[in-house]
Amino acid sequence: MRIVIAEDDPLLREGLALLLRAESLDVVATANSPEQFLAAVEAHQPDTAIVDVRMPPTHTDEGIVAAVEARRRQPDLAVLVLSAYVEQAFATELLAAGAVRLGYLLKERVGRVDEFLIALHRVAGGGTAIDPEVVRQLLVRGRPDGTLARLSPRERDVLALMAEGLGNTAIAERLFVTEGAVHKHIRNIFVKLDLPPHDRADRRVTAVLRYLGDTRSR
């Protein structure tokens, strides 16, 4: 895996590079600004980019804008976005556009090395990794029309885990139920949310996250 890191905090940037290299991952470049990041993507053609949401000069959405531009230039680029806290506007904007090869994690998750590496590999492999706290806050918002209220508590649990990027087996293990029960819950979720079911987990997550992202425009 060839990785570019875009992070303006030098301690976190170098810490991430050391961590990933210790895991035998190839960090081909690091950047402390959006311009450096885009230049590094152009020069090195990485498989995966780890990008901070807030970067110079204004520390608002430069990282998100750069990530979107990098994906425009290199559509198969996997992007793992890091944020100090849940920024719902940025999260829903990213996720509503499609969740394939995309991750959104809080920076505190980096300290949980095993979880961070699992998320990184999932995103690089073409999947999705959404921080549980991001999912929780998006779910709490819900739709103004109360559509989420149609779901049972267990279906909401399954929906949240789907949105994190977990497959049926992992969801069953997390909730201590059978895979058959998970499949039934997922079928009910799509019926209640008027969303067509798909066999591939990433498409399923994309549909759920697009639904959640609709709250921003209502």
UniProtKB/TrEMBL annotation:
The keyword 4Fe-4S does not apply. The keyword Hydrolase does not apply. Gene3D superfamilies: 3.40.50.2300. It comes from the Bacteria. Residues 2-122 form the Response regulatory domain. Residues 144-211 form the HTH luxR-type domain. InterPro entries: CheY-like_superfamily, NreC/VraR/RcsB-like_REC, Sig_transdc_resp-reg_C-effctor, Sig_transdc_resp-reg_receiver, Tscrpt_reg_LuxR_C, WalR-like. Keywords: DNA-binding, Phosphoprotein, Transcription, Transcription regulation. The modification 4-aspartylphosphate is found at residue 52. This is Response regulator transcription factor.
